[in-house]
Design brief:
Blueprint: E1 9-19, E2 22-32, E3 35-43, H1 60-73, E4 82-87, E5 90-101, H2 111-123, E6 139-146, E7 163-167, E8 170-183, E9 193-197, E10 202-214, H3 216-220, H4 223-235, H5 240-257, E11 262-271, E12 276-280, H6 282-285, E13 296-297, E14 314-322, E15 328-340, E16 343-346
Antiparallel strand pairs: 1-2, 2-3, 3-6, 4-5, 4-7, 5-6, 7-16, 8-15, 9-10, 10-11, 11-14, 12-15, 13-14
């Protein structure tokens, strides 16, 4: 019985709809130990496998490109977070939520319980025909905690009230792959650059303001940085021993990003759509997918919000840079994080 869906009470809704362009089913509201939950099922098509799939990814670039394709194939590319809903006249707000594929090709030890949940809804005569022909790995079950008191046993479906679901916005990844040769600490043109957003069919415009070296260890080990870090944790109620431990762990993590004795190479940029750009050293992308970091967003707290082109200044750390280095660096704009709008579904 472990892993089975055995609610104390259940109100079966059984409504099919589309969200983010994909088929979905609003299955039911259950009550277990006085806690109500909403259950939704979605189809998340998987990307087509490459003609010759590698036995393992040889480079970070291969691994990251595959990840972007998978995220683009996911439902809506913006997540399935429900802000709130109105179900047959009842206004509902949600707390925590989680979900899983019904089966993850043997990777998930909990897959059996999710399969039994799917079987539960089939036994309750929930219409699952929208998933006909879909492999189990493409069926996702989500459950949402309901934070409001809900009279599950008294709920009655009415055409007058109907169902309204408000899904929140999110972010999606867009592959770009533009390469630039940029002078370190040198002047850059005011060129208005762009890339094509093939999901929304629009040009996205941006400006590269500068490529500069940043003495990150001078900043991290400064007295001002320590006081700021300490005071932040003190405000959260942590003691001195915990603060010392967390600071040591933080410095160790930063050393993995930029070893002591090196500067950090940083790109400063602006975007007209307020999106985040991810710049990398091409050598990093073409390296083995093991350790190391790149494309880290907003590593520097810029004092001035607005850049020379009138948009928010942002930074992206490329990686460590020898202190004696001078000249140009080859930089790849690999991807962008683009906000996605929320969606309201009326059933």
């Amino acid at each position: 019985r472990q892993g089975m869906l055995l609610p104390d009470k259940e109100f079966v809704i059984n409504k099919t709809f589309k969200v983010r362009g994909q088929d979905a089913v609003l299955a039911s509201i259950t009550m277990k130990n006085g806690k109500p939950r909403l259950w939704l099922l979605f189809r998340m098509p998987q990307p087509d496998p490459p003609e010759t799939a590698p036995s393992r990814y040889l480079t970070r670039r291969q691994l990251m490109e595959r990840g972007i394709k998978q995220s683009q194939a996911a439902i809506g590319q913006g997540g399935m977070l429900l802000d709130d809903a109105v179900i047959f006249g009842h206004k509902i707000r949600f707390g925590a939520f989680w979900g899983s594929m019904v089966m993850k090709t043997g990777q998930d030890t909990d897959e059996c319980s999710w399969y039994m949940k799917l079987q539960h809804f089939a036994e309750k005569n929930v219409d699952l025909s929208v998933f006909d022909g879909a492999p189990l790995s493409e069926i996702i079950i989500y459950t949402y905690e309901i934070v409001d008191e809900l009279p599950v046993t008294e709920m009655t479906p009415t055409d007058r009230d109907g169902i309204i679901l408000h899904f929140s916005g999110g972010v999606r990844l867009q592959h770009i792959g533009q390469v630039f040769d940029l002078p370190l600490d040198g002047p850059l043109s005011d060129q208005r650059r762009s890339f094509y957003d093939d999901i929304e069919g629009v040009e996205r415009y941006f400006y590269i303001n500068r490529l500069f070296r940043y003495d990150i260890w001078r900043e991290l080990e400064s007295e001002a940085a320590f006081i700021k870090y300490r005071d932040h944790l003190r405000q959260q109620g942590y003691g001195e021993k915990y603060i010392d431990l967390m600071r040591k762990m933080h410095l160790t993590s930063m050393e993995g990003m930029c070893p002591r004795g090196y500067d950090m190479a940083v790109v400063e940029y602006e975007t007209e759509d307020d999106i985040h750009l991810q710049f990398y050293d091409p050598a990093y992308l073409d390296g083995e997918p093991d350790k190391g970091q790149g494309g880290v967003q907003d590593v520097i707290d810029l004092n001035t919000e607005t850049g020379p082109h009138g948009y928010k200044r942002r930074t992206c750390a490329l990686g460590p840079l020898p202190k004696a280095f001078e000249g140009c660096l080859t930089v790849e704009l690999f991807s962008a994080l683009i906000p996605t709008a929320g969606e309201t579904v009326v059933i």
